């Protein structure tokens, strides 16, 4: 082979190989219409009827209704089925456009400068979430530090911030938050970041904040499923699980909130189908994300203990108390939990009138096995371990896709709620 031919070969072959590898393109969802289909306790029948469609189911509880996004070319045939439907949205693509673009974040200028509140006007790429958190910590170096608990399946750090008060680092019981275990629930990272922002910036301005900061150590992880979160931003907006591959299946992803090693083995609250949105894994705790979170949870338990855990999700506007694994099981301090949740809902409502429903998670929403709050309660020893499902309500829209204009109000109402909560536990 002559040299110039070799050069051509070297240039062309990699290009040809590259084009042979399918590159995943970003899913736009333009023209997708979303529906709520009534299932009347027979979701299998509805699922069978729509099996031939490329419609994407996007809710996890389907005994009452199954929510689906139908591609434009299938809308006529789907409607001809005559199912009992309500239209949630005429165009999911338009809703995603309203959610706004991922705006580039700019670090504040100056030594120990506090990031701008404009962070909460838009959604941002995952890399910017890391920078924002680092910037925020750097502005309060004597009261906080960044930590990592381990790595995701694809090797990203699972990070958080530890914030302490006048008692010094690690001297008080833990307030422990996880955000974005479900990739598509973007509002969860934002709300958790807003709470973090205020815990740090209001310490010297607000005596109520000083009191809660001095009473607890805070451990806040805004994105515990970084691989899924990145994938929801680059490729499939409605991605939920992690991005773990397993031999013998083309379906990707395990639901980290069905993988915790507690009541994992029970049936009816998770799926053994690898393609399901609630796939539980092959064994309890067989996701790297869960292993990292379990190890860190044990560390907190063995330290000063865990006073309050919240797993921040969306959507539906719920405050969910233990347990998920059994609809009749109640925490030993259930009465106190219920009163607190009731008062929290009232406090949240004061800001913008947003209504949150509260109660034990299984009986209020649905059964879940291997979920975080059950583990935190019975194994982690947390006094309270809740799930909070943020805006919007479950009946209004494409819940995971919340317009950027709602980031701040959704965050402020939780901040006001949190101040109440932590002053009353
Ligand atoms: O299914 C989940 O993991 C949570 N809902 S979501 O729509 N964000 O996926 C709910 C977890 C709450 N726990 C129970 N219902 N048991
Ligand atoms: Zn969720």
From TrEMBL:
Listed transmembrane segments: none
Single biological process term from Gene Ontology: proteolysis
One Gene Ontology cellular component: extracellular region
Stored Pfam families: Peptidase_M14
PROSITE patterns assigned to the protein according to its UniProt record, in alphabetical order: CARBOXYPEPT_ZN_1, PEPTIDASE_M14
Positions annotated as active site in the UniProt record: 389
Signal peptide residue numbers: 1-18
One Gene Ontology molecular-function label: metallocarboxypeptidase activity
InterPro entries named among the record's database cross-references: CARBOXYPEPT_ZN_1 (IPR057246), Peptidase_M14 (IPR000834)
Domain Peptidase M14: 122-425
Gene3D superfamilies in alphabetical order: Zn peptidases
Subcellular location: Secreted
Cofactor: Zn(2+)
This protein's UniProt keywords: Hydrolase, Metal-binding, Metalloprotease, Protease, Secreted, Signal, Virulence, Zinc, Zymogen
Family to which this protein belongs: Belongs to the peptidase M14 family.
Family matches, as PANTHER family: PROTEASE FAMILY M14 CARBOXYPEPTIDASE A,B (PTHR11705), SLL0236 PROTEIN (PTHR11705:SF143)
Role noted for this protein: Extracellular metalloprotease that contributes to pathogenicity.
The protein's name in its UniProt record: Peptidase M14 domain-containing protein
Species per Swiss-Prot/TrEMBL record: Podospora fimiseda
């Amino acid at each position: 082979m002559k040299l110039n031919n070799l050069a051509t070969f070297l240039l062309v072959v990699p290009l040809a190989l590259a084009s042979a590898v399918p590159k995943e393109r970003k899913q736009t969802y333009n023209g997708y219409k979303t529906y709520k289909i009534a299932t009347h306790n027979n979701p299998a029948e509805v699922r069978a009827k729509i099996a031939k469609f490329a419609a994407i189911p996007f809710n996890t509880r389907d005994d009452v209704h199954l929510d689906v996004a139908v591609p434009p070319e299938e809308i006529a045939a789907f409607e001809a089925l005559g199912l009992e439907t309500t239209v949630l949205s005429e165009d999911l693509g338009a809703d995603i456009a309203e959610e706004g673009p991922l705006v580039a974040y700019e670090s504040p200028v100056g030594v120990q400068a506090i990031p701008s509140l404009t962070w909460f006007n838009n959604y941002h790429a995952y890399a910017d979430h890391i920078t924002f958190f680092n910037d925020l910590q750097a502005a309060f170096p004597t009261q906080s530090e960044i930590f990592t608990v381990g790595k995701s399946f694809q090797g990203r750090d699972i990070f958080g911030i530890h914030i302490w008060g006048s008692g010094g680092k690690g001297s008080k019981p833990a307030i422990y938050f996880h955000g974005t275990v479900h990739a598509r629930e973007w509002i969860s990272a934002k709300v958790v970041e807003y709470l973090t922002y205020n815990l740090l910036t209001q310490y010297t301005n607000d005596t109520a904040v000083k009191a809660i900061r001095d009473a607890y150590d805070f451990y806040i992880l805004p994105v515990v499923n970084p691989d899924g979160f990145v994938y929801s931003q680059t490729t499939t907006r409605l991605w939920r699980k992690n991005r773990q591959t397993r031999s013998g299946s083309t379906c990707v992803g395990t639901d980290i909130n069905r993988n915790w090693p507690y009541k994992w083995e029970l049936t009816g609250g998770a799926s053994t189908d690898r393609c399901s949105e609630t796939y539980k894994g092959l064994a309890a705790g067989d996701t790297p994300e869960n292993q990292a979170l379990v190890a860190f949870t044990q560390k907190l338990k063995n330290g000063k203990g865990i006073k309050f855990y919240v797993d921040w999700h969306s959507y539906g506007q719920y405050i969910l108390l233990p347990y998920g694994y059994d609809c009749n099981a109640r925490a030993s301090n259930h009465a106190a939990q219920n009163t607190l949740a009731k008062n929290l809902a009232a406090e949240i409502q004061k800001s913008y009138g947003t209504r949150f429903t509260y109660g034990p998670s299984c009986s209020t929403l649905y059964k879940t096995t291997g979920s975080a709050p059950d583990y935190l309660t019975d194994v982690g020893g947390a006094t309270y371990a809740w799930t909070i499902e943020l805006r919007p309500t479950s009946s209004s829209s494409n819940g995971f896709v919340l317009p950027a204009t709602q980031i701040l109000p959704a965050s402020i109402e939780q901040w006001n709620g949190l101040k109440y909560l932590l002053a009353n536990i």
